[in-house]
Amino acid sequence: MSSTEVELEIFHHTATATAKRQKYHHYHNRNKSLLPGLPDDIAQICLSLVHPSTLYSVCHSWRRLIYSPSFPPFLSIYGIFLSTKEVDQASNRSRSIEFSCFEPISCKWLSLPPPPLEPPHQFLFHHPSFISRKLPIQSVSVSGNLVLLAATADQFLPALSRPLIFNPLSQRWTYGPPFAAPRRWCVAGASRGVVYVASGIGSHYNTMLARSVEKWDLKNINNNYLRSRSWKWEKMGGLKDGKFSREAIDAIGWRGKLCMVNVKGDAAKEGKIYDVKTDLWSEMPEGMLVGWRGPAASMDEETIYMVDESKGVLRKYDSDRDMWVEIVVDDRLKGAQQTAAAGGKVCVLCGNGGDIFVVDVAAQPPKLWVVNTPAGFEAVNIHILPRMSHTVH
């Protein structure tokens, strides 16, 4: 199988039941039926059972169909990028960010619509005072949306006063409710459609902020009236100290809990688990903590995958035995920066943000291939979300 053929298998997301419930739109030549002899609504149900890459290669009417709102959306890689052309290590000039998605059927990177420019989003990523450190840009994926939560602006101030949200199906940006206290970095995660931020640093260190926890429920995201009335940040039970404020931390949603460690890599660390239902904190199991040696992500909030960034090993957590189980070993996974998981695939952002490795963990044995990032850009965050709807000519 060629590399292109493998890439076309990246994220096939079958959802026949969803297709039956959705309204039917016709993005094809009205003088030509999708399947001769069948009404188009029945034809769409039949065609939703076929792999999108096959439909894409047959005819234009089917190609238009797979990108229409009525077709079950397959998954794509979304990335937040910084232009490598703007790097100036001698200054603290902020850099604009770019948003793109890798469309696995056509194997192309597509630009997202530009976000609102109120004000223009310019983030500090490098600064001469911190030569060996990159200032984080934090985002989460929740309920099919990309949500930006924290970053650093000029003068080392928080760059975002409220979350910035992108919905792939509508291709629209919106703002979330204002933060009670904007952060430059923090603990960030999501579970069951709710976004959580905790600890971290605002414009300066503050003990109360370093121990605080807040949540925001994205329900009613598609209803402007209810959204304006119900969207708010709610204060939750705080941490006992500020040990999780030192750097940007991913809180991994897992079985109704958020799992996190306060230090990256092989260094000694502390691990906490937050129960989103009871609003209580507990210590991380010993086996989970000891084996947590790199970026992690959960698949459907059921299985946690983690890359040992020093050894290049992808592992999954076995809660029954409290241990990490090896999935695949590959030197190219060394130096992993971030992971994302969905649809039976684990995506790993490695090195200097120039390569994304995709591991098909549902295959036996697991398959691994590379998706190159757009030329002239380095990726700082990746997510897996539904593809964007658009018109194909």
From TrEMBL:
Coiled coil ranges: none
InterPro entries noted in UniProt: F-box-like_dom_sf, Kelch-typ_b-propeller
Domain of life: Eukaryota
SUPFAM superfamilies, A to Z: F-box domain, Kelch motif
Name the record gives this protein: F-box/kelch-repeat protein SKIP25
